[in-house]
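Cont'd.
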Amino acid sequence: MIQLFHVSKNFGGNVALKDINLRIRRGDFVFISGPSGAGKTTLLRLMFGAEQPTEGQILVDGINLNRISRLKLDLLRRRIGFVFQDFKLLNRKTVFQNVALASEVIGERHTITKKKAHQILRAVGLSTKEQAYPLQLSGGEQQRVAIARSMINNPLILYADEPTGNLDPDITREIMFLFRTINLRGTTVVIATHSRDLLENTEQRIVALNQGMIIQ
Amino acid sequence: MALRVWALYFKYAVGNISSNRLIHVISTGTIAISLVLFGAFVLFFVNMNSWVLQWGQTLTMSVYLKDGIDEKAKQRIEATLGGLPGAEISSFVSKEKALLDLKATLGPQGRFLDGLNENPLPASFEVVFKNVSRGSLNSEKIKEDLEKQEGVDEVQYSEQWLERFEGFVYMLRLIGLIIGGLLCIAVLFIITNTIRLTIYSRRDEIEIYKLVGATDWFVKAPFLIEGAIQGIIGSLAALGVLFLMYFLLSLKTVQVFGLPLMQMVFLPKGHTLFILSLGLVLGLMGSFIAIGRFFRFFYD
């Protein structure tokens, strides 16, 4: 599903990633771990096409991200979900509108968008908050809205960058339970985190980064 | 499919306008004010042209006679005038009548004429050329021939004035076009910058759209619709103000030196449509330039 061949990324003179080789199969659940500044976010951004590697090749679902046009990248992103630590919700739109947005963007009919948004919000336990605005919700609820938005188009891959970074342990468990459920449905899940709590006792694959290199 | 997507773009555009009301009022107002200035020029030229046309339809001539002219010479002049193609003597204005007419025209200010020892005004024949096109008459030649005739002091014809006036109108039209062009550039600059402000204030929102796979066009289209809406509302407001100006001015007959000058006319359909289209094009172009610049910055 995701393949990286000798990928390096420099920002000016700073080396963010160095000679990364990685293969993530369809349906995998992978943690990318490491301390702050290890290159976790850069790696996710490269796999999402938000950055171009300085060296190496990246294939996502058979598409080479080095040679992809802007339009094709937009189309590829419709099959990828992304969840951020700061949620990235539109505060002027309701919970329902935030979730429906990802479906509207792909040109889905309004009736189908509505149905899908209701279903996904029920699945993340927010059906009673559809008309609320993001700032009226708790951090955990906002993250669930972001997850619902990333899942509305049944993506092949879900990337999450420190998705529980702002949340307390109970909410973190709830969110991780959601990610596992999503993974069981067949979506490949890649989570970048520096949280030791998340990684303890996990049976999932962990890719450990340090100073831009894979160490485990 | 296409209609559904355009309905969605339209919904986004209206939503954006209602959540950024102040900035949209400012750019719509800018378009309106600029188009009022531009439209006022157009209205002025339309009226000038209409006056020139009205005036140019009939050629009139005043043949001024020398003082103390005898009756025979006067009759000869009358006969010559009667022989000109299409000419008809509309009236003979004696020296006394000329003075009385001037007094009547000047109204209360005419009293100073009472102090004159001698009537300085000449007698004249007023001639109208009927059913003759302006092009087929050599008015200059007629004037020269008449002025050679015994008893004729001077000949003045309406075209002389008209030709000078047409030159003046042409010059004004040229100035108007230059000012109009400069105004359009200024409006485009202001619209581009105000729309750019709204785009930059929604940078995070655009980033989220792109994250969920929105194409550039999906992001651009609502902004273009916003520009078009601003342009149309701005031009409609401008036309409203221009109509009000026309209405207020047409209540009074415009007079120059106490003489009724012209009947005001409003912008013809073609000009009205042109101002509407100009507003639309300015709004669209402003948005197009602003969003284009934003994307260049966004991808850098």
